[in-house]
Amino acid sequence: MSIVTLQHAGRTDVGIVRANNEDAFLIDDVTRLYIVCDGVGGRAGGEVASRTAAEYVAERLREHQADLDKAHRGELRLQKRQIAGWLEESISGASGAVRERATNKPELFGMATTIAATLVVGSQAYIAHVGDSRVYLVRHKTLHQLTEDHSVINDLRRRGAQDGDRSYMSGAFQGALTRALGVLNTARVDMLDFELLPGDRIILCSDGVYSVVGDTTMQAIAPHGDVSTAAHMFIDTSLQNGAPDNATVVVLDVAQEQAEDRVGRVRRRLKALQSISMFRYLPYPDLMRVASVSKEMPFDAGTTIFDEGVPGDSLFVILEGNVGVVKSGVEITTLGEGAHFGEMSLIERLPRSAGIVAKTPVQALVIERDGFFSLLREEVTAVKLLWGMVRMLNARLRSTSDELTSLKTHYGIDG
């Protein structure tokens, strides 16, 4: 596992309107954990909730410090889902910690907080969030929003309500959350992991930054300056725009390094996934989610990748090499780089309609059904994937219909 060098800076400001700062950020170089929390506005103890949550998550992850350090140095091979599980469990548990701290303290009753967190292990970034604090990725000078706000206003937007519709987009809905830490003893946490590349920048911020700075200016500021300059620019711009809320940002840079092999591998994966109609129109963050559940597998020449008639549960995309498609013991065609097969196995465990044999050494990208179904648990990503699947099935149906029409015409069959 490659190790990336990180630079970081954080800044928070009470803003112009608020009397106290309910935001908190945490930078922990030991665990390589970076957090932004936003105590829910209008509730007593918001600042206590945000600090409690951030510290609880850091403490729980430090319990795995030895294993995280070994994994970071490549001395221990941990499954990505295990590391992600530690982060997810610590954040979910933080909800109970916030709730417990408010027990028997009337002044803290009802306190809650959002959280946006990034954990770096080796060259892998693990993103987790609850609420409407956000995580962004700047890659090749383009800003990508990696998290979806857990808020009423965002749910309304996704269901078609327009920003200009004041009956839906203003008033009590403006700051209402659909998820937060401290409401229940556990919380549902959205997760994402991906491989960091040289020059990547991760930005964690509260809504007091992005909602005031605006999308266009966020994109303009995001790629520029070092981490300290960028952090100050975000906060200063928020203050210049009136800063009606607390504003907090953490900027995390991956140092430039000679890593052409890693960069090429990530680009190749994403390009291969985009060659599949089901994934072709996914936004970059969702494409990264698909890449995170895929794995590369080598096959020697002559290896049977799978047999005809055997039920399967994986989609394969050829990154290098050629395979033969075998039907009833006869090779009917050859597939090369960029070809894919087995996509229907992601939906249902059916017998394979043909066998696949490696004709040369093959490197393949493999997505298993369990990983695919984990993506469907994320509501926003699930909708996009299902639409992609509909397009794929529609294209396949149209192709089959065209072939049937051609055969009828060739053989002079009516009806």
Describe the structure.
With 415 residues, the chain is α+β, with helices and mostly antiparallel strands. The protein has two domains: 6-257, Phosphatase 2c, domain 1; 261-404, Sandwich (Jelly Rolls). It has helices at residues 46-62, 65-73, 80-101, 152-158, 166-169, 207-213, 215-221, 227-240, 260-274, 284-292, 369-376, 379-411, and strands at residues 6-13, 23-28, 33-39, 113-121, 124-130, 134-139, 142-145, 190-195, 201-205, 247-254, 294-299, 304-306, 314-320, 323-327, 330-335, 340-341, 355-358, 362-368. The strands form four sheets. Strands 1-10-9-6-7 form a five-stranded antiparallel beta sheet. Strand 2 and strand 3 (33-39) form a beta hairpin. Helix 6 (207-213) crosses helix 8 (227-240) and helix 9 crosses helix 10 (284-292). The longest helix is centred in the last third of the chain and has 33 residues, at 379-411. It starts with 5 loop residues before the first strand and ends with a helix.
